Amino acid sequence: MPDKNGTWVNPLHSHNDKRLPRIAGPSGMVIFGVTGDLARKKLLPAIYDLANRGLLPAGFTLIGFGRRDWSKQDFEDYVWQAVTEGARTKLNETVWERLAEGMHFVRGNFDDDVAFDTLAETIAEMDATRGTGGNWAFYLSIPPNSFADVCHQLERTGMATADEQSWRRVIIEKPFGHDQESARELNEIVNAVFPEDAVFRIDHYLGKETVQNILALRFANQLFDPLWNSQYIDHVQITMAEDIGLGGRAGYYDGIGAARDVIQNHLLQLLALMAMEEPISFEPAELQAEKVKVLRAAHPVYPLSKTTARGQYVAGWQGSKWVPGLREEDGFDPNSNTETYAACTLEIKSRRWAGVPFYLRTGKRLGRRVSEIALVFKDAPHQPFDANDVTALGNNAVVIRVQPDEGVLMRFGSKIPGTTMEVRDVNMDFSYSEAFTEESPEAYERLILDALLDEASLFPTNAEVELSWAILDPILEYWDANGRPDEYRAGSWGPESADAMLRRDDRTWRRP
Ligand code: BG6
Asked: Is domain 207-503 given the CATH code 3.30.360.10 in the classification?
């Protein structure tokens, strides 16, 4: 039976039971920016995958809004193309036909009153004919400088406001501003039209299984928590390395750079989940309260000349392929100072984390694609072995492999079989693909479904967004005032200055 949100629940179970598959109630979605890269590669395939898994309501309706002169059929063809290229689950004709029936396209610009009036009429018509029940999510997959126009139009036409039995929500994509002040302004624009509980900000890292597993690892187990503090942890490394370059993304990336692109959101969210205290429950408000607390306590370590590093890739060998540097990539300013690599050192001023540096790094065109979080332990206080027998021993570590090869690894010393007491590092490895037969859903499947279900746990609030900027702003200002990024070769592990940053602390980056 449907609950008060129109969500279908099994009456035999409490609807708080997080094990049950949840199916979205009657609803539809309007995507602005539907011809963009994100919609084509991620959103449309995710919507199909949700439909294919039976998690969307029968009358689910998808309206694309854009400038192209498209008929319903053109839009269907476009979505079909995106689905065949990007869907995770098998193509099923019946599912596709049912989904395609509910597809429509409205042509227009964001400042075009007539187009938005047509959109409002289309929505009303869908409510009358497809049973969408007045429940609509507006997905803004558009540059933030268009948020104001779209929000204004949604307000003017009454689409932003629901009646008592239905809901209206807005889903927004980063970048949420380029510093704290602009994030605040953006939040004001959105919140002037949609109340905060109707705003769903996407940070797709929070939709990843391995990221949600941080909560399970930390709070479902007894094994880790006693060690999860400054008494045992030497430092934490959070890495998001990518091997791809930035060809084709100049419009978005030039002038933005690696820190704004992923540290402000993905990496600081990972830090928050790793470092926060146990929430009272996993209700959105409780989880967000803990994240806000830890983000408030996080600060850059000074002096920034020694505790941060940034770089820009120059041409080099990426595996067996020679690839161009950023300044030669299509569309980039040949004198661009945009950083494609960023690293910084943060501290968390709390009893749990005092004195434990959190090193964050990210980069494009690095040696390998890998995202991971490593907790590196302090040395054991005493080694009762002959120094020669343990010389090769590194620090113990717990490594959460976010992707690829998702899993958790523990590294510790073990006796080498034989007649002497020689100790060497070994790995104990949990891998998702070996432990589970279920395939992980794509992050966007989870997040789109959660937005339709009004399940806000995995969406950062505006407080989190603004606090993340507050952490990053001093670093960005320092970089702005201090010339160009260092160079690093494509295919390498970043600029020398990033290695020097850790060397000064007598530490080294992991080479995953
Ligand atoms: C996006 C960034 O948020 O995340 C991109 O804008 C980056 O620059 C992407 O490539 C990486 O996502 P994933 O899921 O492939 O790690």
From this structure: yes
